[in-house]
Amino acid sequence: MRHRAMRWLLCAALLAMCSGATEAARPATIDLRTKSGSLGQLAPVALGEGAVYVSAERLAVLLKGSWQVRGARGTLTVGSRSAHFTQNQARMTLLGAPVTLQSPPRVGPSGWLLPDDFLTRGLAKLAPGVTALRLSAAAPRPQPRPQRPTVAFEDLRLRSYPSFTRVVIETAAAVPYTVEASRAEVRVRLAGLGLQAPQAQEVEDGLVGALRLAPDNGDAVLRVALAAQAGEVKDFTLQDPPRIVIDIHRPKQPASPDGGRPGMEPLRLIVLDAGHGGHDPGAVGPSGLQEKDVVLDVTRRVARMAEDALGVKVALTRSTDVFIPLRERTNFANKQRADLFVSIHANAHPRAVSEGVETYFLSSEASDTEARQVAAIENGAVQLETPASRQKTDLLKSILWDLAQSEFQQESSVLAETVQDSMTQSMRLVNRGVKQAGFYVLGGAAMPAILVEIGFLTNPREERKLAAAEYREAAARAIYAGLSEYKRRWDQRMRTAQAAPARAQRTTR
Ligand SMILES: [Zn+2]
After folding, report:
1. Which DSSP helix (H) or strand (E) runs through 309?
2. Domains 2-134 and 156-249 share a fold
3. How remote is the CA of residue 381 from the centroid of ligand 1, in Å?
4. Ligand 1 center to 275 CA (angstroms)
5. 2-134: which CATH topology?
6. Which of 122, 182, 380, 507 has the greatest count of CB atoms below 10 A from its CB?
7. Does 88 have pLDDT greater than 70?
8. 3-state DSSP assignment of residue 227
9. In what helix (H) or strand (E) does residue 111 lie, and over which residues does it extend?
10. Residue 386 and residue 116: Cα distance in Å, rounded?
11. Cβ-based neighbour number of residue 483 at 10 Å
12. CA 184 from centre of chain
């Protein structure tokens, strides 16, 4: 009585497992074949724990053999060869030799079920010349979701450019991902990415409305809400550190395919960036003069001159004593679709006798040790933004994360040479030259971008000069003259390009 009840329970359990498991996973149909063709197909059944079974009776029919049950034992015979199975025991006998299967045979409502590994381990001996082939590409076994090691999330960044918005996900190691784009959003699934808490960012750059990165079922899902219709969505990966880059392009405007390219359209807008501000004083001179005040004054003077005499628009990243994160400065220029970005600073150096002017453009490799130090000092402002989140990020890698400036490096160097020449010639200052270094503030600019150091605040003699309105006016005029010369060359190129439109189109595509 007790034995019977147990058996009934087992059958009931198997029944439940059968109906539940076949829905969850459909193992590939198995085709039995000989050299001369197919013998027919088996429909495998998946039971719990990932085991897959085939019907013993059906197997016997296809093999043109027999299946006989006696009590808890079943025998499959093909010609003179036979295999003996015992219910619920993985150990079986094949041609008289013991074999242990991965799972024991089961008895379900439709009869005996044999574990499918018998087909790989026993079929060739029982029925020589017959092979079992899985037909579909579906998962052969309803394996539980593989345990992937979780990869740590590092950072989520966004940059707006005139023609696209770039989202970068930095991770501790490479992560498999999928991208799906619809009208309303771009959705990126990052397999096995571990996230402590959801990340959200308001963007509103006219293309992207907001970002949200949240854990989802052992993965992380990034949802980029679109505020306008997007064009092409591109994705690629970068190494060291591992990053996934998603570029969401604005729809193509056929009217001006070369919009904003130097030499193709008039120089329209220059963004001037007065360094530092607010709780970030920048360099401080021996008598207390602060870089943020000097450069704001000089920047405003340059803006007035350029607007009055150059016929271009000038926009300032700051016109008052406020703190602006470095990334916001170029984001602003990108959103405005500026043609040039000029950041104005004054130096600090431990050696008080250091003097002169120098102009920088962005490079991953600093041109010398001093250039690297200047970049490190100017980049220090990042620490004043959100220290906890910034400190872990390697600065130089952050600067170069999107490599957007590399496209403009040549043009940036021309702009830097032009402004540096103008400053040293008109002001008879020590010419420290044009240099390259990894300036964070220039990193995301989608246009030619330079950083001008107009003098050393830490040099008492230069500090006195920088405190005087006449000197500031002269410095501003020199920068303005450099921009004016650059614009003259720009206009010249534009005329050349317009004179030979067919040739220009070929070379700018
Ligand atoms: Zn500075």
Report:
1. helix 291-310
2. no
3. 8
4. 5
5. Copper Amine Oxidase; Chain A, domain 1 (3.30.457)
6. 122
7. yes
8. coil
9. strand 111-115
10. 59
11. 26
12. 20
> For residue 419, what are the contacts with CB-CB under 8 A and spacing of at least 6?
342, 359, 450, 452, 479, 482, 483, 486
What span, in angstroms and rounded, lies between the C-alpha atoms of 51 and 108?
14
Can you read off the two tokens belonging to residue 138? 């579906």
Domain spanning 269-499 has what CATH number? 3.40.630.40
Ligand 1 geometric centre to CA of 382 (Å): 12
HEC string for 6-29:
HHHHHHHHHHHHHHHHHHHCCCCC
CA atoms of 347 and 344, how far apart (whole Å): 10
Ligand 1 centroid, distance to 403 Cα (angstroms): 22
DSSP state of 252: P
From ligand 1's centre to the CA of 301, what distance in Å? 18
C-alpha 360 to ligand 1 mean position (Å)? 12
Joined together, the tokens standing for residue 443 give 């990193």
**Dihedral-angle region of residue 129 (phi above 0 means left; psi in -120 to 50 means alpha; beta otherwise):** left
Domain spans of the chain, in order of start: 2-134, 156-249, 269-499
Tens digit of each residue's pLDDT (9 = 90 or more) over 453-481: 999 999 999 999 999 999 999 999 999 99
- Band (316; pLDDT cuts 50, 70, 90): very high
- Ligand 1: distance of its center to the CA of 422 in Å? 20
CATH 2.60.40.3500 fits 156-249, yes or no: yes
Give one DSSP letter per residue of 257-304, joined into a string. TTTT-TTTS---EEEEEE--BTTB--SB-TT--BHHHHHHHHHHHHHH
Which of these, 294, 340, 334, 296, lies nearest to 314 by C-alpha position?
A: 340
Q: How far apart are CA 387 and CA 381, in angstroms?
A: 10
Residue given tokens 């004083």 in the structure block: 281
Sheet holding 449-456, edge to edge: 313-316, 269-274, 340-347, 449-456, 357-362, 431-437
CA of 276 to the centre of ligand 1 (A): 6
- Cβ pair 159, 404 in contact under 8 A: yes
Distance 475 CA to ligand 1 centre (A): 16
At 265-310, the pLDDT tens digits run 889 999 999 999 999 999 999 999 999 999 999 999 999 999 989 9
**CA-to-CA dists, residue 56 to 29, 67, 131, 425, angstroms:** 15, 7, 16, 95
Report the alpha-carbon distance of residue 309 to residue 480 in Å, rounded. Answer: 9
The H or E element that residue 373 is part of is helix 369-379
